[in-house]
Amino acid sequence: MRAKWIRGGLSLLALGLVFASGWLTRRIVAYHVLHRGSEVVVQRDFAPALADARTPTPTPKVSEPAMVQLYNNVLYLVREQYVEPVKTEQLTYGSLEALLASLNDPRSQFLRPEQHENLVRALSGEVGGIGAVLAVVNRKTTLRVGNETAPLEQSLLTVVAVLPNSPAEKAGLKPGDVIDEVDGRWVLSENPYAEVVELQRMHSPRDQIRQASERARQRALNSITLSEATAQLSQIPKPNEAKPLELTIKRGGQTLKVRVERATTRVRPLEYRMLKNRWGYLRPNLINATAAREFAHALRTLKQGGAKGFVIDLRGVAIGQQEPALQMLSLLVSKRQVAQVEYRDGKTYKKRPLTLPKAPQAVGMPIAVLVDRGTYNIAELMAIAIRQGAQARIIGMPTFGEASQTNLYQLKDGSAFTLTVGRYLGNDGTAFHQRGVQPDARVPAEPRMRGQPGADPALERALQWLTTQEKRA
Amino acid sequence: MKRAGRTRIGLLLLMPALFVAGYVSAAGYHALVPYAPSWLGSARAALNPTDAFRTVLAEIEAHFYGESPAIDKLTYASIEGMLAALNDPYTRFMDPEAFRRMQEDTTGSFTGIGALLEDAPGGARIVRPLPNSPAARAGLKPGDIIIAVDGKSLERVSLDEAVRMIRGPRRTTVRLTIRRNGVDEPFTVAIERDLVESPTVDVYLEDQENKIYRIWLQNFNEKAPQLLDRALTEIQQNGARALILDLRANPGGLLDAAIEVTSRFVPGERVVVSIVGREGLLERRETLRGRYRNLNIPIVVLINSGSASASEIVAGALRDHKVAMLIGEDSFGKGSVQTVIPTSRNTAVAITTAKYLTPSGYDLNAKVVDGKRIGGLKPDIEVKNPEDWRMTEEDKARDAQLQKALEVLRERIGASKPSEGVLRAQHDAEVNR
Does domain B201-432 correspond to CATH entry 3.90.226.10? Predict the structure, then answer.
């Protein structure tokens, strides 16, 4: 009897030990992952677009190690000597933010852990805030001062796409809207003192300079930076601060004021159905791993249902990653090379093909691709790749025109940074950066009516074209 | 036996399952317990700043698609961003150009012609030549416009740049081309640069009837205490009944001068300022014995956003020791000590290593929050002057701060005005708050 108890106790102990050893193993693994020599982990599944599948974790070698030394010296001095104790993390984040900002590329930026988390969540289809995809668009324009003009650089916070069922959609925001003010504070889209500088250069009367300077000062005082504005628009407020945001929007020549709530918008990865006359309709709302999986499943289901051709609706598709886009393409196009990427090699620019990870299974049926201004980046690439790789037509409105291939690098403390590493081109070298992909047929449509037969002129036009293809065959 | 065997098999099957369970639970551990003790291994390792910087920099150099600034510019931008995270406007990085300029400014080439300049069409206008300066000796007059320096036109040159062109080593000559109203042709004068002694103390009788004097202390150089003494003697002899100590547009100067000046108004061995470093109190500076002037008249100190450093120390000490009330607007907010440390490649970093606290422990230093300066001394009575007001005799009529000071002092010395009692109570309340 006693022996039985001992044996039972011993086996429980053994089981406990096994559990503990499993636990410890994981921690040790985690520790080694975190404390590898390099500070950076390029996570391929998170990278919106990976520069080069062959590039391993970058070996941090810089052309002038003395510069790293200088950085280290200043860091050390500040930590040792500054009048108050400093948080190293703040210094690190401040410096990396400034480093990436100095590239003057809106798509290359440092992401603090919470920003990074937001991005990852958005890529998975959970978008916080107003529920719109925003991009900073740099624009060169001219400033009129008296009779003279001067060049002026603007960075406009632009609505790329409005997600279905989002607060932004309810508020009536539209792709292309420029957000000029958030809660009455001006979004710092240009140097407020540009006019003052010009007036000084022109030796204008002092009163005029002083007035302009005072205006600029007031404007600057009541402003928020682009990153602050983006943060406000993409976060979910605490329950007690859940006030709608008052936005001032520039649309065309108009200025509008709208109130937008903030919430979590859940994006359904894919919608599909069989339209009349057995045309398959597929609409990925974003391009991530889940959407790619569901896309494959939907395509199979529609084919089994006797589909004769497909409408792929990429209107308003602005969230996406390269890998899942390639997976989707591999079910549609016939050739393995789907696009080109221009990249920098030292001081020269070179091109390399962007190829599918495995041999494609062409769908072998006509495809009508629907696009509009909210078709952004990787979705634009998909459109152009389908046109060049299948029996396809692009119908709708010109796309946004963002062809940057951007990497996401995770740092081991949960922060991350993005870096533009290349530019997508069509397979035949067609550039769509800042121009957009031009549709074969220009047909506008109301975003809310997307995919509603009878109410969506672009869809109607697509079905017409598919019908002609059927007759030809 | 059979049962025991089954148990044993069950146990063996359970083992791998438990191992996996342990593995998985450890992975999720940090999601469940965010404040886990560090010896269990942290889910987020701290970032080594230098390694992270090297990694990002290397990645930019290797793969960034766009036009990247040169590696030194990238590094300087990073360091500036690092220091900006401290929210301290005085901790700053100096690139080779900035460091060189700073060295020039402090190693005595800081000599010029001694004239106050302002921007004007086609050049720089002389607001006024300082008394006894090279400019005054050369006969330059207010309103003259300098249109060229050493033959180089100022047509498309900023005022800052013009000043830099006019300045130069002592005893060298600068040729200025001047356009003067009433003189047809521009003419050129050669002026020998010299150390410019700006006036330090001016005395004004602002209210003749009530004998209210204003002493404008313009900076805190070595001579300031001595000149102040002379001014105080003058007003005492004239029977001053109240004093306005004007520290507006006074950028500060020597700490010793600030101690001396405070000692005129506060009896000996009281704290003027505490100098506090990272590890705590470094030094406490007190008023000097035998310097107290015992004026025994009400005093108001005027401050504005141009009152910085030593001015703020004096104003803060006079208020904390209840010698004077402050009227005007928030002072500049410069109460700290920077140490300039040269770093490699002809760069340097200025780091705030200590700060000044007023006797009551108020941190004089302004902070930069969201790109805006916040801080400095708050006046007891806030009065703003028009944005384009100038601190000149001609513009005195619009000096609301001075008017307020006079009003307050008239009340205090019981001069004129009915309903005096009520108003005085009101002002006393304001002084005490």
Answer: yes
